Amino acid sequence: MFSLFIENIRISLTSIFENKTRSILTALGIIIGVLSVTLMGTLISGLDKSFEKSMSWLGKDILHISRYEWFSDMEWWEVKNRPKIQPDYVKKIRERSRYAIAIAPVMQRGASIEFKEQETRTEIFGTNQDYMETIETNIIEGRFFTRNEDASGARVVVIGYGLKKAFFGDQNPIGEYIKIDKIKFRVIGVLEEQGKFLGLFSVDKQAVLPFGAYKRIFSKRGWMRISVKVSEKFVSEGLDEISIIMRHLRGLKPTQKNDFAINQTKAFEKQYQGLKLAIGGTGLFITLLSLLVGGIGIMNVMFVSVKERTREIGVRKAIGATKSMIMLQFLMEAVTICFIAGLIGLFLAYLLSLFINKIFPSTLPISLATFSVLLSIIVGVISGLIPSYQAANLEPIDSLRYE
Amino acid sequence: MSLISLKNIEKIYNIGGEEVRALDGINLVIEENEYLAIMGASGSGKSTLMNMIGCLDTPSSGVYTFEEEMVHSMGDSQLASIRNRKIGFVFQTFNLLPKATALHNVEIPLIYANIKRGKRIKIAEDALASVGLSDRVNHKPNELSGGQRQRVAIARALVNKPSIILADEPTGNLDSKSSKEIMKIFNDLHRNGNTIILVTHEEDIASYAKRKIKLLDGKIIEDSNQAT
């Protein structure tokens, strides 16, 4: 059987290379199909990865108390009069909550940062020593600030990895002074690199200051949220409890709606899943369509090939080929075209993914590559089935007589 | 026991609602090492008979035994196996695969017989040598003359050491010089013990054979072995 297999591959390759133009045109459908399935998969896996990474910036199982919901279908006028989140809530929540492990106020605004001659605009955050517990990012150099530094309004700053790279390159930034809106701060720590948030903007350029100093120097303008970490086992209890505390702090009557929001990264996940489904669904549809068109092309060419080689089929049968041997020969021809087309498509997808990776973090997973080549083989088998069956069932006498 | 035995073979086609008896009660016995010519005008049924003997076609009724195997009741893959092991075909139009070398053309029956590559090439080369084409092994059919092509076809027919060689108008597309060469090869093969069945309408080609049968309207009307 092995000899027959080799012979069939030889026949297939001969036939493909004898009709180069026809083969290329036929293969194009499959190439495009494999290209689109692979690129779509690459894109989605890239999205997944960057989403996971981005979520660590906000922390999992963290409750973010803010003025507005992150994603909401409420009208603007319904929420515009909500009162601001006040810094003193932090102390009150800490006093009353049983589930909260860490409570960090996070104030945020834009600022310009200078080091020597260099200047850049970025977001600065004012928070307390609990902040590190509410994010999943680590300190890679130096340390975070202490409760005392926070309380005393010490002018110290922890900078993002991107900022460190931009200002200090590979040199040690600890102990150096940078200017935030013209005011000097001493660098005491560097945060781990996180990449772009959903591939859109970088959070690596942030600067984190103690709340005390932030409040004193940069006023209360800007956004404020309170990030509360609760024990993983009691997230829903924690959510209820914080909600009750907040309602109490706001003095709401039982009939009144919440005038604050407690956000979770789950909300992002929900949005993201919807997005992913939309991209994946569209991609799948396009892919199936192009593979269908490709498959029809292959089938068409196989019919032509069977017709052209009717006499050859007759001769092969006369000298001892069985129906199944003839069937296998044509089936393998269809599969060979599709397989080669699949490899070409994969190669093109790989090249394109390298290019895409420069704009958007993405990688081509091995499992996806294997899958797409497998898919092209399946298309080959399906579209080769009917023409091969036709070839196998030709009457030897008739086909020998065929001109 | 005879090599080939046909008893009351009938082949009936239905063309446009009309019954056509291509073979009408053929009785024929062929012994080992016979050299037989089947003759007849076109439409006499000689091609149908050849297809029947060559196991390319099955009879509508009758009994066909080939070396004690009941061919008339065989299925497709059994027939293919008989064709592969016991019959060597030589066609008027050579029917070589145009893109394959002479050697590869001769190899194909061995591939279907599932013989290993090394052994296969050796056998195929020997077969080509036996028809005097040792120096044309790697030529493709379009690089060979008509006579050479037919010799490749004969080598292909011989390569599985078949019980019979079935030649359908083997010289129909050849000039007289090449025809003589080809017929000489058949003579040699016969002398070496092969059984040869020629199908032809040319008297001078048929005269090479030791036995002649003539067909008309699907019946044998003359058999030189039974001539009185």
Would you give an account of this structure?
The complex is a heterodimer of chains A (403) and B (228). By secondary structure, chain A is of the alpha+beta class. Chain A folds into two domains: 2-54 and 270-401, no CATH class; 62-262, no CATH class. Helices cover 58% and strands 18% of the residues of chain A. Chain A contains 14 helices and twelve strands. Chain A has a six-stranded mixed beta barrel with strand order 2-3-10-5-7-6. In chain A, strands 8-9 form a two-stranded antiparallel ribbon. In chain A, a hairpin with a 3-residue loop joins strand 8 and strand 9 (201-202). The model of chain A has no long low-confidence stretch (mean pLDDT 86). With 228 residues, chain B is α/β, with parallel strands linked by helices. Chain B contains seven helices and ten strands. Chain B has helices at residues 46-53, 76-86, 102-112, 117-130, 146-158, 176-191, 203-206; strands spanning 4-15, 18-30, 35-39, 61-66, 69-70, 87-90, 164-168, 195-200, 211-216, 219-223. In chain B, the strands form two sheets. A six-stranded mixed beta sheet of chain B has the order 6-7-8-3-9-10, sandwiched between helices. In chain B, strands 2-1-4-5 form a four-stranded antiparallel beta sheet, with helices on one face. In chain B, helix 4 crosses helix 5. The longest helix of chain B is centred in the last third of the chain and has 16 residues, at 176-191. Chain B is globular and about 50 Å long. The model of chain B has no long low-confidence stretch (mean pLDDT 92). Classes of the chains: A alpha+beta (403), B alpha/beta (228). At the A-B interface, helix 1, helix 11, helix 12 and helix 14 of A face helix 2 and helix 3 of B.
